[in-house]
Amino acid sequence: MLPMSYYTVQWHEEPPHDPAPVATPLHSTHWMPLEGVAQEWAAFGAEAASSTAFLIATGDVFLALSWETSALRHHREATEGSPRRAPRALLACLEGLHEASRHWSRATYWLGREAATSAQALAAQTHLLTHLASAQQHENRLACLIREVEREARRLPRSPQPQPEAEEVQP
Which H helix or E strand runs over 140? Predict the structure, then answer.
């Protein structure tokens, strides 16, 4: 598997050897590099290792990032691979995005629960609320991505469905 940086560089920059790049759905503003997000949440998880809620939230964040990385791979396959495989690849992409969204939602839940029940110092509470807002933003971003990919899937040409042959009725 290629490192995540391969995807992000290809995602946001046009190749220097291509003088006239073709706009593709890959230039969505909702896909984003995930390396910085992973580093941010790894640091958060390390700092908050004494809190069960923080560890669960951090685990869910990494599951979300994993699912989103998988979704990106399937999206690239759908848009750059064989047109015959595009429908299946977009379905796999949507599955990954839905799973990622579910895990961001769980992270939001655990962080919100901790924020509501915690009696932390102001600096720690601010740090927690910053990460809660970040999780909510990622959850919203994924909702936009899901809608985008669903629109792409609806634009795919439909393959003709085989029609059953009519049976002749004997008198």
Answer: helix 122-155
Q: What is the C-alpha to C-alpha distance for residues 9 and 14, in angstroms, rounded to an integer?
A: 9
Structure tokens at 35: 């390396």
Q: Which residues have a Cβ under 8 Å from the Cβ of 134 and sit 6 or more positions away?
A: 40
By the 10 Å C-beta count (0-12 exposed, 13-18 middle, 19+ buried), 59 is classed as middle
Please give the distance of CA 108 from its chain centroid, rounded to a whole number: 15
Which residue, chain included where needed, has tokens 């990494």?
Answer: 62
Largest CA distance in the chain: 88
pLDDT at 17: 36
Contact status, residue 8 vs residue 34, Cβ threshold 8 Å = yes
**Which stretches of the chain score pLDDT less than 50?**
1-26
pLDDT tens profile 43-89? 999 988 788 999 999 999 999 999 999 999 999 999 999 999 999 99
Q: Are 111 and 120 in contact (CB under 8 A)?
A: no
Helix axes 4-12, 35-47, angle to 10 degrees: 130
Instruction: Output the pTM of the full model.
Output: 0.75
